[in-house]
TrEMBL record:
Source species: Sphingorhabdus pulchriflava
Name of protein: (S)-2-haloacid dehalogenase
Entries under CDD domains matching the protein: HAD_L2-DEX
Primary role: Catalyzes the hydrolytic dehalogenation of small (S)-2-haloalkanoic acids to yield the corresponding (R)-2-hydroxyalkanoic acids.
Swiss-Prot/TrEMBL keywords: Hydrolase
Amino acid sequence: MTANTPPKALAFDVFGTVVDWRTSIAALVGQVLSAVGRPDIDAFAFTDDWRMRYLIGMRDFGQTGRGFVKLDILHREMLDALLVDMQLDLAEADRHTLVMGWHRLEPWPDSVEGLNRLKRRFPLVTCSNGHIALLVNMARHAGLPWDAILGAEVAQAYKPAPAAYQRTAQALDIAPGELCLVAAHHGDLFAARAAGLQTAFIHRPLEYGGAPAPDLQFQQPWDYEAGSLTELAERMGC
């Protein structure tokens, strides 16, 4: 399915769509666990558990009544809870190292080329639950050529809240229907479409190590679909 009117800008989910969080974090987790004498713990299972707590937390955040806080704080809270459940104690420095690992994620092989091609035609912004400092650090680490870093901190809301999408469009002085969310997650795109945005799905079958994505119940035909950001660039005439 192709949108009838091309968007005026592209907004990108980042974790999983543009960067490979699982491989990046598991490598760091493995280093930390080995250093503290626990190489027996599966670093990927640790990473998957940490990420699942994030997914549940974002889904339910709007119902808690809690005011907006930066993602570093939530990542730390979720890490601390995971360590309690695992009956594993880590020093403060190790916990900080793991939280800051989310600032230095590696891009998927097609991401930088695809973004640069798309940028020839469209303004590129983030629409992520990451905060500005995290996304700036990640962009510099991974070479991501954003025109602007928007999202949770600008919207003061976490996806999938409608404000997270609509305020991104508002910041660009365009209507929601003139903005296209690019994401590897059906749940994210479902919420973006409900908020009035166009949608582009990027297949990332290895995001969860080949396991089924946790949001397949939201799958539907999207305005654009591609197997990579370079393929999306081709489909969008870039």
